[in-house]
Amino acid sequence: MNTAGRRERTPARCAVAGRCGGCSGADCTYPESLKKKENLVRSLLKGICPVHPITGMADPFHYRNKVTASFGYRGGEVLCGIYEEGTHRVVQTDSCLIEDERAQSIIATLRRLVKSFKIRIYDEDSGYGLLRHVQIRTGHATGQVMVVLVVTSPVFPSKKNFTAALLKAHPEITTVVQNINDRPGSFVLGNRNQVLYGKGFIEDRLCGLTYRISPNSFYQVNSVQTEALYGKAIELAALTGRERVIDAYCGIGTIGMTAAGSAGEVVGIELNPEAVRDARVNARRNGIANIRFIEADAGKCMVAMAEAGERADVLFMDPPRSGSDEIFLRSALRLAPPRIVYISCGPESLARDLKFLAKHGYRAEACFPFDCFCWTEGHVENVVAVVKENGNRS
Ligand code: SAH
Predict the structure, then answer these.
(1) Same domain for 192 and 242
(2) Confidence (pLDDT) at 393
(3) Percentage of the residues of the chain whose pLDDT score is greater than 70
(4) Does the Cβ of 220 fall within 6 Å of ligand 1?
(5) Does the residue 5 lie in any domain?
(6) 298 C-beta closer than 6 A to ligand 1
(7) CB–CB of 264/244 below 8 Å?
(8) Which of 10, 97, 307, 342 is the most buried (most CB within 10 A)?
(9) Distance (Å) from CA 82 to ligand 1 centroid
(10) How far apart are CA 256 and CA 279, in angstroms?
C-alpha cells in the first residue's frame, strides 16, 4: 500500500489495543492524530507563543528504534511484551504498529530460546529468577542491532550457548550485552554491563554525523523525525560561526555536535556518565574540536559558569519530560544568552517553563511541533525559539 493510503487509513487495531497502551492514539486517521497533537500544543501555549503546523511522518509506522519488553509466564508459557498499563502483567504481540520490525522478530526468537534453555524468569513478588527484560536498539542508518538482556545476576548460566543460538537465528545482531539489574522497582536497566558479543554499543548516523550509543545512554527513538527536529533547532539558533553555545541536557552530544560546525565553541552538559563518555568519543570520531562536555547537573553547572563570569550566545536546552527546574531556569537568566532554543518532549512543562522565562524578559517567538511518537496520545516533541527582549536584564 502506498504511504498516503497508510496515512489516511485508521490503522488496523492490533490484538492487544487498549491493553498495552503503546499506541493509544491510533483510533483515528494519521492526519486526525496530527491535528489533535497540534491542537493540544496550541491550547497549552495560547497567549505564550505562536504555534506552527505540526510536522508529521510520510510513513508513521515501525519508527521506534528502541524496544523494551519484559518477560513473564502464563500457564508455564514464556511471555515477552509490554506491561499492561498500570500493571505488571505482560501483554504480548507479534504485530506492533510502531516498533522496529527487526526487534519484534528477535523478541519472538528470545521467547523460544528462553524456554529451550530453561532460563528462569524473574518474579517480582518472590525476587527469584534471572531474566527480567530485553532492550533492542537498532541504528536507523547503519542497520546495527544491539540486544541488551537485563538479568538479576552477573552469573548467567549457559550464556555463551544462548548468545550463539541467538546470533545464529539473527545474524543481523551486531552486539549482545548483559545488563545487571538486581534492584526491585520499575527501572529497566541497572548500571553494570557485560559485553557478551560485539562492541557493547551500536552506532547510528544523524544529520551527517556518526554516534556511538551505549545501553544506558539516551537516544531519540524516532531517527527520521529527529533529523527534521534538529534541523529546525539549528535553524532557529541562527548561528554565524562565532557564537559560544551551551547544549544543556546534551545526552550523547547530538544537538551540540550538529551545531558545532556553525558555532565558535560548544559546551555540552549532561548528568549521565555513560552518555558523557559516548559524547566525548563521538566528538573525537567526528573530528569536532570546538566542543567539550561537562558531567554535571545542568542547573548547578550553569550557576557556576555565571559566577565565573562566563557568557553564552545561544543556549540549547532539551530537558526530560518533566522540564527544567527553577535552579536551571534562574541560572539561564544569570547567563542571559540573547537566544534560547528549547527542545521539549513535554508540552505541559514546556508551557510552564516558557511562562517563567516570559516573566523575566524572554519572549517565545515561535513553536514548531514534530510528531516523533506517532500514534501515541498526547506525546509530541516541540522546538521553540526564545529571544531576550532588548535591554530587559533580570
Ligand atoms: N539532547 C539529547 C538528550 C535529551 S534527553 C538528545 O537529543 O539526544 C534528556 C537528557 O538530560 C538525558 O540524557 C538525561 O540523562 C539528561 N539529564 C536529566 N536530568 C539532568 C540534569 N539535571 N542535568 C543534566 N542532564 C540531565
Answers:
(1) no
(2) 43
(3) 96
(4) yes
(5) no
(6) yes
(7) yes
(8) 342
(9) 25
(10) 10
Evaluate: CB of 98 within 6 angstroms of ligand 1.
Answer: no
In ligand 1, which atom is closest to the CA atom of 345?
5
| pLDDT (average), residues 148-163 | 96
Say which residue, 245 or 96, is predicted with more confidence.
245
38 domain-assigned: no
* pLDDT, position 31: 94
Residue with CA closest to ligand 1 atom 3: 251
Residues 241 and 147 in one domain: no
CATH number of residue 103's parent domain = 2.40.50.1070
| Grid cell locating 201 | 554499543
Indicate whether residue 61 lines ligand 1 (CB < 6 A): no
Burial class (CB in 10 A: 0-12, 13-18, 19+), 62: middle
pLDDT at 116: 95
- Asked if 194 and 328 sit in the same domain, the reply is no
Q: State the Cα–Cα distance between residues 8 and 297, nearest whole angstrom.
A: 44
Per the structure, the complete domain to which residue 72 belongs is given by: 66-206
| Ligand 1 nearest-atom number relative to CA 297 | 23
Which of 356, 357, 365, 358 shows the shortest CA–CA distance to 383?
A: 365
Domain count, the chain: 2
Residues 194 and 325 in one domain: no
Any ligand 1 atom below 6 A from CB of 272: yes
**SS3 label, residue 152:** coil
The string of pLDDT tens digits covering residues 211-231 is 999 999 999 999 999 999 999
Beta bridge partners of 383: 343, 368
Taking the complete model, does pTM exceed 0.90, yes or no?
Answer: yes
From 222, 227, 271, 328, the mutation candidate for ligand 1 (largest count of ligand atoms within 8 A of CB) is 271
Is 217 contained in some domain? no
> Does the pLDDT value for residue 392 go beyond 60?
no
Residue where a domain terminates, one of 175, 206, 237: 206
Is position 342 within any domain?
yes
Q: Are residues 173 and 118 in the same domain?
A: yes
- Atom 6 in ligand 1: which residue has the minimum CA distance? 251
Q: What is the pLDDT averaged over residues 282-289?
A: 98
CATH number of the structural domain spanning residue 53: 3.40.50.150
How far is 80 from 24, CA to CA, in rounded Å? 20
Identify which of 105, 86, 101, 100 has the alpha carbon closest to the alpha carbon of residue 18. Answer: 86
- Which cell goes with 203? 552506532
Is residue 110 within 6 Å of ligand 1 at its C-beta?
Answer: no
Do 238 and 133 sit in the same domain of this protein?
no
Does the pLDDT of residue 394 top 50, yes or no? no
Question: Last residue of some domain: 143, 174, 206?
Answer: 206
Q: Annotated catalytic, 345? A: yes
| Same domain, residue pair 358 and 244 | yes
